[in-house]
Amino acid sequence: MKSQGKNNQSLNSSLLVLLIGVLANLSFLIETTQASPYAEKNNPKLPKELISTENNSETESNSSQLEFKSTIPRWRRVRLVHNLEEYQVTVDSLVFSPNNRILISGSASNNPRMKFFSVETGKQLTEFSAHPTGILALAVSPDGNTLVSSGEDPGINFWDLRTGEFKFTLVEHSSSVTSLAISPDNQVLVSGSLDGIRVWRLDYHPQRPLYTLANRNNPVTAMVINSNGYLLASGNMEGKVQFWNLTEGTFISEFAPHQEDITGMAFSPDGNNLITASGDRTIKIWDLASGRLLTTLVGHRGAIRTIALHPDGRTLASGGDDGIILWDIDRGEVLTRLRSHQNWVQSLAFSADGEYLASGGFDATVKIWQSTLPASTSKPADSSE
Fold first, then answer.
1. What sign does the dihedral 281-287-291-295 (CA atoms) show?
2. Helix (H) / strand (E) containing 15
């Protein structure tokens, strides 16, 4: 990544001290006992294509060993594989199943549906109302065992991907739950809301959060957990990024990289860099060890509403009022622009194998994209839309 000169914004020294040590495991000792007031009803089984029939530990291991060594990013040329016009409202959230076969989407409040699509055929497999209001966030655990959803209501719903059964609902927030993140070791779920952040244990059925991090005066708009498993970054409406120690449930530091709300965040696969996106039309890439700004990506003409980082750690997709931009973040260059959506792009997701990009928009459509360049390509190609 290219440095763009001096930057007067830096991470606090307390973060640098924390990053020196590597904590091997999350160790939480607080028990939770309060029962959830939400009844487990109106949640049918997930489609059989989604249910894991493989050895999950083996699948997780194989996934972590995927290598992306192409010197030229594949996503210079992209084709639209499926145009899924199955909604009547904004598509706010997207996630691929661990086996890359199913795309799961969630929609806005006036038609809050969770829908499941076959990536191969584009056909809808099933749909149901997972929340009484809009679905704002979806997450799948790294081991492929659990699907989690949240929305404009305060509840967080869980499904067991090994059986397809609904498991339980967690209720602790008093406002919309806008973001979800699961730790790499599958032990911890973090939920971000307009009333702050809650940290939950997932190795048993929790009823109350382990920690409450940010409070009502600090509404959360985006979150991401570092690959080390204990560092959480959250973004808020004021353009600030805050760092939290998940092991101790403590605040570390904060800085203000943007002039408007943080709309997307991602850590690089090695955990060394943080990517932040904002309604101020910029994307910034930060070196955590030094606190230095490495690159600022400028290309959107309107607000950036979402980002997704490819598993190669080099290709970034950003979506906003003017469509999708695919970036080579090492070079700070635009690879291509995709303008198929008729309105702003609200959600993006790459599949775990890096083969597909999904996008959802205010135009009530879901689109699945694929690179037309082979993984072994050695020459850059002209971009296409």
1. negative
2. helix 13-20
Those residues with Cβ within 8 angstroms of residue 297's Cβ, 6 or more apart along the chain or in another chain? 282, 283, 284, 285, 316, 318, 327, 329, 332
Residue 180 belongs to a domain: yes
Provide the phi-psi class of 291: left if phi over 0, else alpha when psi is between -120 and 50, else beta: left
Please give the DSSP secondary-structure letter assigned to residue 301.
Answer: S
Element of type H or E holding 367:
strand 366-371
Q: For 219-268, give the DSSP string.
A: -EEEEEE-TTSSEEEEEETTS-EEEEETTTTEEEEEE---SS-EEEEEE-
Has residue 148 been placed in a domain? Answer: yes
CA dist 343 and 89 (Å) reads 12
Report the amino acid identity of residue 74: R
Domains: count for the chain = 1
Per-residue pLDDT of the chain (385 residues; tens, 9 = 90+): 444 444 444 444 433 333 323 222 323 222 332 333 332 445 556 656 655 544 444 444 444 445 555 545 688 899 999 998 766 778 889 999 988 999 999 887 667 788 999 999 999 998 888 788 889 999 999 998 999 999 888 889 998 888 888 888 898 898 899 999 999 999 999 999 988 999 999 877 777 888 998 766 678 999 999 999 999 999 998 999 999 999 999 999 999 999 899 999 999 999 999 999 999 999 999 999 999 999 999 999 889 999 999 999 999 999 998 889 999 999 999 999 998 787 889 999 999 999 999 998 888 889 999 998 876 443 433 344 4
Is residue 8 one of the residues assigned to a domain? no
Beta-bridge partner residues of 243: 233, 253
At 299, which CATH number? 2.130.10.10
pTM here is 0.81
* Amino acid, res. 9: Q
Residue 227 near residue 267, CB atoms below 8 Å: yes
State residue 9 phi and psi, 5-degree precision.
Answer: -110, 125
Contact 101, 141 (CB under 8 A): no
